């Protein structure tokens, strides 16, 4: 669909019909107010049915929407005095990751996030939001700087994954991601991570070790894309819809599994429908969380972070398994 996603089609069709009736009423002597009111009541119910009963694949489509707000969009609306910093001091600058110093309601913070483009030209410049190793090393450099000057770190996660190209592998893609995981686990300042779109594989995890992890209502967080999982499991990427359901990659699933701490509600239809309102939802969570984390002593902060990730995932041993080993 040009103006929306497939699951939204009934809503968009009804909105179009209401707009046509309004235009007709304005240009003629026929009063269709009663019919319009009935359709608007029907629209309200339809929107509730559609947006409150979204399937996992529907949420994947919303998370990938071309107009979904990016890290830069949120920086502009949530922070002041942002100064972008560039380069990893080893190889170069990676525009797939944006980072720098800013103020959040007067508090100095470091902001880092994946950044994709709005159009083809910008997507090419930003490598479609898929960072090279220098992007992750830049992020780590800014995190260590934040630790030195005692600034909280706020990470926005939105990437299909780390760039899998030959040049990235030659420059140590896996090592760069692993180093970020290791270093973030021990940073002495509060870290808040927010999955705003797609949280894909190690490319997302490299900015995802935090004291609090949040997900926007229609974002996803997974070890692989549904298409990739379907290709591996069933040798058929067209079964991505079924894979999305089986993988449990949506915010409600991950909250239930204990992977994330809280879901940030989205505006009706997705964050791209009203960026200003969506930023306000994030603002509420940031204010509350920073206030809480800044009161925790440094030693306890690190212990709590360790325990948080240690407790993700559970296992159990069946009696049959125990009998085999006895």
UniProtKB/TrEMBL annotation:
<comment type="pathway">
    <text>Lipid metabolism; malonyl-CoA biosynthesis; malonyl-CoA from acetyl-CoA: step 1/1.</text>
</comment>
<keyword id="KW-0275">Fatty acid biosynthesis</keyword>
<dbReference type="GO" id="GO:0016740">
    <property type="term" value="F:transferase activity"/>
</dbReference>
<dbReference type="Pfam" id="PF03255">
    <property type="entry name" value="ACCA"/>
</dbReference>
<feature type="domain" description="CoA carboxyltransferase C-terminal">
    <location>
        <begin position="35"/>
        <end position="292"/>
    </location>
</feature>
<comment type="function">
    <text>Component of the acetyl coenzyme A carboxylase (ACC) complex. First, biotin carboxylase catalyzes the carboxylation of biotin on its carrier protein (BCCP) and then the CO(2) group is transferred by the carboxyltransferase to acetyl-CoA to form malonyl-CoA.</text>
</comment>
<keyword id="KW-0547">Nucleotide-binding</keyword>
<keyword id="KW-0276">Fatty acid metabolism</keyword>
<keyword id="KW-0443">Lipid metabolism</keyword>
<dbReference type="InterPro" id="IPR029045">
    <property type="entry name" value="ClpP/crotonase-like_dom_sf"/>
</dbReference>
<protein>
    <recommendedName>
        <fullName>Acetyl-coenzyme A carboxylase carboxyl transferase subunit alpha</fullName>
        <ecNumber>2.1.3.15</ecNumber>
    </recommendedName>
</protein>
<keyword id="KW-0963">Cytoplasm</keyword>
<keyword id="KW-0067">ATP-binding</keyword>
<keyword id="KW-0808">Transferase</keyword>
<comment type="subunit">
    <text>Acetyl-CoA carboxylase is a heterohexamer composed of biotin carboxyl carrier protein (AccB), biotin carboxylase (AccC) and two subunits each of ACCase subunit alpha (AccA) and ACCase subunit beta (AccD).</text>
</comment>
<dbReference type="InterPro" id="IPR011763">
    <property type="entry name" value="COA_CT_C"/>
</dbReference>
<keyword id="KW-0436">Ligase</keyword>
<dbReference type="GO" id="GO:0003989">
    <property type="term" value="F:acetyl-CoA carboxylase activity"/>
</dbReference>
<keyword id="KW-0444">Lipid biosynthesis</keyword>
<dbReference type="InterPro" id="IPR001095">
    <property type="entry name" value="Acetyl_CoA_COase_a_su"/>
</dbReference>
<comment type="similarity">
    <text>Belongs to the AccA family.</text>
</comment>
